[in-house]
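Ops channel
N.P.: pipeline sanity check, posting one input/output pair.
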């Protein structure tokens, strides 16, 4: 179970400029700054950005990229997603997965009957939620920890959670 290797994965979003020398504030979608630094080069709407420096900030991280040298350039990046290709993410143990790998997988009930396809993974604070779209295009959500059994090529949804 792996998403397309060239699919872009958003690791952070630029939330604004920091100072006058081109640094940007980031909202990270990963907790590990060391791993974020290891990627080195990110895509910002198709433009490569080379990470020079990263430090913590009360609202996320502050980063400096080689290509961004002043506040105007930094401000222009506000709202820009910083992405890497899926193939750049490290391999995981057999019993772990990235949420991106769940999206697009067929969902079935315990008997193997098709329910729909997974379309999103969300977290509203109480745990991870899988959103499933049925054939009639109606959607419903299930808690991943209690209701989803992950297989390489499909997801089995516990009967009690199927709408």
């Amino acid at each position: 179970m792996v998403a397309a290797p060239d699919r872009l994965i958003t690791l952070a979003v630029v939330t604004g400029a920091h100072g006058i020398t081109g640094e940007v504030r980031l909202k990270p979608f990963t907790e590990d700054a060391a791993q974020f630094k290891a990627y080195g080069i990110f895509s910002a709407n198709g433009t490569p950005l080379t990470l020079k420096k990263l430090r913590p900030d009360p609202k996320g991280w502050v980063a400096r990229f080689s290509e961004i040298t002043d506040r105007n350039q930094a401000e222009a990046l506000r709202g820009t997603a910083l992405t890497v290709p899926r193939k750049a993410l490290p391999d995981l143990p057999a019993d772990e997965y990235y949420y991106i790998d769940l999206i697009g997988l067929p969902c079935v009930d315990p008997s193997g009957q098709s329910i729909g396809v997974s379309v999103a993974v969300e977290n509203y604070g109480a745990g991870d939620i899988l959103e499933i779209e049925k054939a009639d295009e109606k959607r419903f959500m299930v808690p991943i920890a209690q209701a989803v059994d992950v297989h390489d090529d499909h997801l089995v949804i516990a009967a009690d959670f199927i709408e």
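N.P.: looks fine end to end. The domain at 8-88 is CATH 2.40.30.60 (Elongation Factor Tu (Ef-tu); domain 3).
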